[in-house]
């Protein structure tokens, strides 16, 4: 089903602008960490197991949609678990890809359920378990820091977004973008 991209009210546009600022700052951080871990990172064309069908906040979904809507894009809709923008091992929307894609390959830190301890995750192709002493709070990507910012921005966005309604915590599958393209 093809849907129209809903019109965007000024307050929703402001939220999209805020989202893009946070994404730029996140990118800056990821670039620094990629440089720092350069010797470990094996990520490259053909290694795309990270490119799954992510779900993103509506503010991110509609921001990306507005950036790519006028482009002629190839879409790969053959595997439901895979990202539709991964075609021939290349990201078709690389410049506009979601924030979660920007930290692919980096050591990721998330706060555990108690809210008191960081949990580390990393790609075993890039880092070995024996490397764990190598990780610090400064050389890991603190995902929750950006997720909290995105949550607040998205909350404003969904309040003012016209068309489909979303709760504060609702996420949209990236795959759904094909309905608008
Ligand atoms: S948007 Fe690009 S980088 Fe992100 S999962 Fe899809 S293909 Fe991979």
Walkthrough of the structure:
The structure is a single chain. It is built from 4 helices and 7 strands, in the order H-E-H-E-E-H-E-E-E-H-E. It is α+β, with helices and mostly antiparallel strands. The protein has one domain. The strands form 3 sheets. Strands 5-4-6 form a 3-stranded mixed beta sheet. The chain has a two-stranded antiparallel sheet with strand order 1-7. The mean pLDDT is 92. The site of iron/sulfur cluster has 10 residues, from loops.
Question: Using only CA atoms, what is the Rg?
Answer: 17 Å
Helix content: 25-40%
Ends distance: 10 Å
Give the biggest sheet. Answer: 3 strands, mixed
| Main sheet: strand order | 5-4-6
What is the count of helical runs? 4
Outline the low-pLDDT stretches: none
On the 0 to 100 scale, the average pLDDT is 92
**Class derived from helix and strand content:** alpha+beta
In sequence order, what are the helices and strands, one letter per element?
Answer: HEHEEHEEEHE
Broad shape? globular
Secondary structure tally: strands: 7
- Quickly count the domains: 1
% residues in beta strands: 5-15%
Small ligands present: iron/sulfur cluster
């Amino acid at each position: 089903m093809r849907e129209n991209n809903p019109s965007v009210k000024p307050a929703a546009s402001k939220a999209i602008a805020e989202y893009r600022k946070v994404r730029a700052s996140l990118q800056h951080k990821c670039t620094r960490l990629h440089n720092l871990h350069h010797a470990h990172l094996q990520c490259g064309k053909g290694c795309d197991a990270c490119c799954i069908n992510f779900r993103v906040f509506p503010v991110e979904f509609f921001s990306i949609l507005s950036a790519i809507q006028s482009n002629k894009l190839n879409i790969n809709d053959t595997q439901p678990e895979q990202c539709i923008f991964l075609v021939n091992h290349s990201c078709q929307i690389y410049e506009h890809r979601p924030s979660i894609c920007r930290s692919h390959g980096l050591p990721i830190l998330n706060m555990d359920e108690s809210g008191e301890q960081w949990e580390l995750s990393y790609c075993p192709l890039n880092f070995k378990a024996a490397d764990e002493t190598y990780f610090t709070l400064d050389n890991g990507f603190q995902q929750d820091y950006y997720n909290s910012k995105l949550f607040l921005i998205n909350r404003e966005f969904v309040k003012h977004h016209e068309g489909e309604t979303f709760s504060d915590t609702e996420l949209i599958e990236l795959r759904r973008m094909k309905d608008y393209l």
